UniProtKB/TrEMBL annotation:
CDD domains membership: LysM
InterPro entries listed in its UniProt record: LysM, LysM_dom_sf
Organism (species): Cytobacillus dafuensis
UniProt cross-references to SMART domains, sorted A to Z: LysM (SM00257)
Domain LysM: 49-92, 107-150
Molecular function, one GO term: lytic endotransglycosylase activity
Listed name of the protein: LysM peptidoglycan-binding domain-containing protein
Length: 212
C-alpha cells in the first residue's frame, strides 16, 4: 500500500502529464451554486445569455425564471424603469444549479492574500491578458476578496477534505481516490478546519477555484 507521501507524489506526476494535454473548449453552461456568492454586475454579464421579451412578459416574471432580483436584472441591462417591450433583448445570468462531478465552462474565484494577476493566471494555466479580458480589467492589480471569472474546462467534484499537504497544496478524497489541488502559497493551512467535511470543489489546471 502506498504511503501518503508516495500517493501525493504519484498524483502530482499524473497532473503534470495531464497539463500537457490541450482540452477542447467546454460547451456546458456554468453551474454555480446561487447561495455561494453574490454576483456583481460585471460577473453576471460574464456569465450571461440573452433573452428576447415576448408578449405578456414582465421584469418580475423574467427575473423569477432566471433566479435573480428585479434590481439585479435592471442593473445588468442598465434599465431605469420597469418598462420593457416585445422584441427587446435582455442579458440574463445562466441558469443556476448545484454542480456535481462534471466539466463546466465557468466559475468564480475569490482573490486571496498574496495573490497577483500573474500568480492567479499562472496557477490556472492562462495568460494575464486573457484573465484581464475575461474580467474587463484595465489594470494589473487585484484586491483581496475581489471576484474573478475563470473560464473554460472547469471541473466540479464532490469530495471530502483531508487537509493541507504543504504550504501550497490541499488533499481531498472522492470515491476512494485521493487527489491534491494547488492553492495560493501559504494558505493551505486555512483548509485544515474543513478536514473531514464533504464539499464540492471546482478547479482548473490542478488548482482550486472554490469550495462549496
Amino acid at each position: 500500500m502506498q504511503s501518503r507521501k508516495e500517493r501525493i507524489i504519484a498524483e502530482r506526476r499524473t497532473k503534470a502529464r495531464k497539463r500537457k494535454v490541450t482540452f477542447a473548449g467546454a460547451t456546458l453552461a456554468a453551474a454555480i451554486t446561487a447561495s455561494s456568492f453574490a454576483l456583481t454586475t460585471n460577473e453576471a454579464k460574464a456569465l450571461s445569455g440573452t433573452y428576447t421579451v415576448k408578449e405578456g412578459d414582465s421584469l418580475y416574471r423574467i427575473s423569477k425564471e432566471n433566479g435573480i432580483s428585479i434590481k439585479e436584472l435592471k442593473s445588468i441591462n442598465k434599465l431605469t424603469s420597469d418598462k420593457i417591450y416585445i422584441g427587446q433583448t435582455l442579458e440574463v445570468p445562466v441558469k443556476l444549479q448545484t454542480p456535481g462531478d462534471s466539466l463546466q465552462s465557468a466559475a468564480v474565484y475569490t482573490v486571496a492574500p498574496g495573490d497577483t494577476l500573474w500568480s492567479i493566471a499562472n496557477r490556472f494555466g492562462i495568460s494575464v491578458e486573457e484573465l484581464k479580458k475575461q474580467n474587463n480589467l484595465t489594470k494589473n492589480m487585484v484586491l483581496i476578496d475581489q471576484k474573478l471569472i475563470i473560464l473554460d474546462n472547469i471541473f466540479y467534484k464532490k469530495a471530502k477534505v483531508i487537509g493541507a499537504v504543504d504550504k501550497q497544496t490541499v488533499e481531498f478524497i472522492s470515491n476512494n481516490n485521493h487527489f491534491v489541488l494547488m492553492v495560493p502559497y501559504g494558505t493551505a493551512h486555512t483548509y485544515q478546519k474543513l478536514a473531514g467535511k464533504e464539499v464540492i470543489v471546482s478547479y482548473k489546471n490542478g488548482a482550486l477555484i472554490q469550495i462549496q
